[in-house]
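Would you mind giving me a polypeptide sequence along with per-residue structure tokens?
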Amino acid sequence: RKVATAALAAGVTGMVLAHAQDEDMVSNGFAKDILGEVYKHSEGKLILIASGRFPSGFKALEYIEHGATLVQISDQLGELGLPICRKIKTDLSRALMQDNITRLQDCVGAAHRKKKVKARNLWKAKGAS
């Protein structure tokens, strides 16, 4: 909380918070918890960047829902190459379509908001699940 308060007071617009390189941090949700706390305390006014290993777009979406505005995957580009970008993008698209979400920005901080009726996905075929 003190970090978010100091950042807002100093006029900082963004922070890199969730460096999820350590598997223990990823598996126990520690990085997402910190990200969520800063997002809630700053009331979504800070740009928060989740940086680290995201094996899929589904895992990246979890961090976005906890408040990440951006997800940095540069570590994986060096090891896995450009195909990891396509995999994460495809996974994100699938997750959004499954939940009938039309804009990724609607997911930022969604874990901290009350659930509300989602807008219908105009691109999804009628009757498709």
User: Anything to note?
Assistant: The chain has a mean pLDDT of 83. The longest helix spans residues 83-98.
